[in-house]
């Protein structure tokens, strides 16, 4: 029989019987392989984090005016594909990684790569919803952790739901739009029940569950709206994107133009430039008045975890993360 001839049914059954007698993997070898992969992860993780590219300033459901640096995006994709195709051991070991583990960036890059190489919108939606489910599992498995560990997991959960919604909005076939929205709505309802019983040890469990439920309920509302009128859903998202763009522009105007200087900051009264003096309340500057002194309150931008799909609810500002998530 030539190498390109199809197998007969009898040959297929024979091969399957042989597979049934494959001896179990040695636990010692499995433990040793995992240890080796973790050692490799300590070297891979910094490179993976460095190649995570922040999303452009535009909203998740509209065509973006800006674009991420092309070579950096290509490098990120090549690294992820290399992990999927050539780094099977690291990828396999990373599947159970938690946000506190060195292999976690490898896990996220693998997810991004699998979405990128999936051509069908319906299949991409399934992947994104599965990955959003993973974020809930991770929150349940995390032990007591600092808010900065919880925050990216919650944000990525929302981003992956938004990326799933974007598959429907970018589809040209009306039947496909409705099918994707129905799939998302069904999974959101499942996630809502999971969140209600989710046992969280890290941060403030009640506040985290509340934020997750708010995210799910808002996207359920969007799914119902889109199922009745896809154009109305696009209009709703466009309005939200415009509002987020305005907030981002306001944040950019508050960014310091020089080291140690905020835009609009002036020396306090009774002080000469370059010297200290009492500053007016609530205004940044070199003074030591009773105001907060910073003159800004930065909020997260959409898509900081790499998808470009920002949460539909305002995310907590950097100055309020600890108060929102506990610890």
In short:
With 327 residues, the chain is mainly alpha-helical.
Key traits:
327 residues; mainly alpha; 11 helices; globular; disordered C terminus
What topology emerges from the helices and strands here?
Blueprint: H1 9-20, H2 27-50, H3 70-85, H4 88-94, H5 104-116, H6 121-141, H7 147-169, H8 174-196, H9 205-228, H10 230-254, H11 321-325
State the helicity in percent bands. 55-70%
Q: Strand pairing plus helix content: what structural class?
A: mainly alpha
Mean pLDDT: 69
Number of strand segments? 0
Q: How many individual domains?
A: 1
Strand coverage percent:
under 5%
Instruction: Sketch the topology as an H/E string, one letter per element.
Output: HHHHHHHHHHH
Distance between the termini: 68 Å
Largest sheet, described in full?
A: none
CA radius of gyration is 24 Å
Poorly predicted runs: 44-69, 271-275, 279-327
Number of helices: 11
**What is the molecular shape?**
globular
Please tell me about this protein's structure.
This protein is mainly α and 327 residues long. The chain has one domain (30-254, 300-325). It is built from 11 helices and no strands.
């Amino acid at each position: 029989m030539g190498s390109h001839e199809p197998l007969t049914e009898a040959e297929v059954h024979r091969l399957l019987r042989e597979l049934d007698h494959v001896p179990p993997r040695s636990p010692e070898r499995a433990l040793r392989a995992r240890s080796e992969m973790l050692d490799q992860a300590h070297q891979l993780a910094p490179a993976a984090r460095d190649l995570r590219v922040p999303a452009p300033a535009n909203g998740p459901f509209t065509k973006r005016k800006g674009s991420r640096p092309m070579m950096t995006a290509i490098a990120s994709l090549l690294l992820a594909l290399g992990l999927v195709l050539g780094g099977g051991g690291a990828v396999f070991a990373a599947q159970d990684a938690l946000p506190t583990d060195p292999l976690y960036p490898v896990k996220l890059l693998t997810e991004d790569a699998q979405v990128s190489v999936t051509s069908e919108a319906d299949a991409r939606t399934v992947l994104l919803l599965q990955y959003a489910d993973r974020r809930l599992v991770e929150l349940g498995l995390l032990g007591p952790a600092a808010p900065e560990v919880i925050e990216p997991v919650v944000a990525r959960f929302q981003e992956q739901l938004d990326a799933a919604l974007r598959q429907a909005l970018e589809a040209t076939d009306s039947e496909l739009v409705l099918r994707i929205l129905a799939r998302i709505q069904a999974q959101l309802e499942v996630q809502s029940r999971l969140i209600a019983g989710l046992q969280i040890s890290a941060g403030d469990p009640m506040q985290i569950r509340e934020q997750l439920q708010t995210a799910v309920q808002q996207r359920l509302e969007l799914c119902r709206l889109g199922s009745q009128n896809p154009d109305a859903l696009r209009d709703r998202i466009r309005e939200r994107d415009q509002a987020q763009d305005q907030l981002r522009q306001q944040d950019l105007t508050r960014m310091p133009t020089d080291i140690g200087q905020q835009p609009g900051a002036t020396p306090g009264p009774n002080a000469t430039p370059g010297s200290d003096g009492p500053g007016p309340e609530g205004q940044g500057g070199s003074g030591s008045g009773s105001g907060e002194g910073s003159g800004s309150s930065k909020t997260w931008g959409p898509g900081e975890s790499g998808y470009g799909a920002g949460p539909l609810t305002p995310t907590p500002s950097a100055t309020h993360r600890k108060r929102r998530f506990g610890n």
